[in-house]
Write a structure and sequence with these properties.
The chain is an alpha/beta fold and about 375 residues long. Helix content is about 40%, strand content about 15%. The longest helix has 21 residues. The protein is globular and about 60 Å long. The chain starts with 6 loop residues before the first strand and ends with a helix. The structure holds pyridoxal-5'-phosphate.
């Protein structure tokens, strides 16, 4: 079957940056080749810049974004530890599930979907949690939560809790400042605003969390102590074999990050902001209603209500077959009442915003 070219505007993989795609097709290096190790070191350095951190232990984990979530919990949560999770969408729910499977006593703080995390309610959930988890950019609802305010409030209370942030849909799309926000651990994915294919989980952990990690966690593959030695280089220590690094994916991430840093992070954020603003404005001009709370909308992921009487799946199908544009369905109970449109990484451009608006206008007859 011939592969077709799509404009990927769903919440899943976004269209990668051309540099990242080209790197995937480059001649393969061995995973211990000095040139590959140089690329790996540089990738970790570049990740530190986009994360806004000086954390030595900043690396791409082998696996999709979810492996970052899994690694965070399995390395830090002991059986019976109280863990507070802010839930304002699907990925907060996933955090609860993962934390529970690793033995945490989970205190979930539920929010209405479409609303940001309420810092006061999260603080009130437990007087001394071991860890607090929140999703910075909820892909299921298109909402941004103020992780910086959460980090500041925890520190102001004198909390010793570790703060874990899910930045899968925020990294390299909107500001992320791990060190300034007192985030102890964070993970992301490559397929969103970083503009690379899915397959790696950029991860960062600070000294505070490192000191508290479980020395021999109930995982071999995701034991950060072992992985840290392998990634080695500027992350500290020599290199010992742990697993065969996915060299092509790391080369692709290296290239995607190179592209982002060459453009400049502030310019990349501004490009996302401008494209998202135009898309959201255009949808409202069409008479559609946005789902996420005003003032907290992500520019990179827009949620919009399906108009009354419109078959949501049929519209998505027509966009795909007639225009080659993939947009996403709503998540969970909003599967047929909300669409999710991503303008991430390479797609975070005004021309992409206008393209999807024009196609949608035609399909909806508006
Ligand atoms: N967290 C958020 C906010 C996400 O959007 C996603 C995926 O879309 C994940 C976690 C899980 O990442 P992955 O599907 O790459 O495993």
């Amino acid at each position: 079957m011939a592969l077709v070219d799509r404009v990927l505007l769903g919440p899943g993989p976004s269209t990668p940056y051309p540099e990242a795609t080209a790197a995937l097709a480059a001649p393969l290096l061995g995973h211990l080749d000095p040139e590959f190790l140089r690329i790996l070191d540089e990738t970790c350095d570049r990740l530190r810049v986009v994360w806004g951190t000086g954390n030595r232990r900043t690396l791409p984990l082998s696996g999709t974004g979810s492996i970052g979530m899994e690694a965070a919990f399995v390395n830090t949560v002991r059986h019976g530890d109280p863990v507070v999770v802010a839930v304002n969408g699907l990925f907060g729910e996933r955090m609860c599930e993962v934390a529970a499977r690793h033995g945490a006593e989970v205190h979930r703080v539920d929010h209405e979907w479409g609303q940001p995390v309420d810092v006061e309610r999260v603080l009130a959930a437990h007087p001394a949690p071991a860890l607090v988890g929140a999703v910075h950019a909820e892909t299921s609802t298109g909402v941004r939560s103020d992780v910086g305010a959460l980090g500041a409030a925890l520190r102001a209370r004198g909390d010793s809790a570790l703060l874990l942030a899910d930045c899968v849909t925020s990294l390299a799309g909107i500001e992320v400042a791990v060190d300034d926000w007192n985030v102890d651990l964070a993970y992301s994915g490559t397929q969103k605003c970083l503009g690379v294919a899915p397959g790696l989980a950029p991860f960062t952990i600070n000294e505070r969390a490192w000191e508290r990690r479980i020395p021999r966690p109930a995982t071999w593959y995701l034991d950060l102590g072992l992985i840290g030695d392998y990634v080695g280089g500027s992350a500290g220590g020599g290199r010992t074999y742990h697993h065969t690094a996915p060299v092509a994916m790391i080369a692709s991430l290296h290239a995607g990050l190179g592209r982002v840093l060459e453009e400049g992070l502030p310019a990349v954020h501004a490009r996302h902001a401008e494209a998202g603003r135009r898309l959201q404005e255009g949808l409202e001009e069409m008479g559609l209603s946005l789902f996420a709370a005003a003032g907290q909308r992500l520019p990179e992921l827009t949620t919009v209500r399906v108009p009354e009487g419109v078959d949501a799946a049929a519209v998505r199908g027509r966009l795909l077959t007639e225009y080659g544009i993939e947009i996403g369905a709503g998540a969970g109970e909003y599967a047929s009442t909300v669409w999710r449109i991503g303008l991430m990484g390479h797609n975070a451009r005004l021309d992409r915003a206008e393209l999807v608006l024009a196609a949608l206008r035609r399909v909806l007859g508006r």
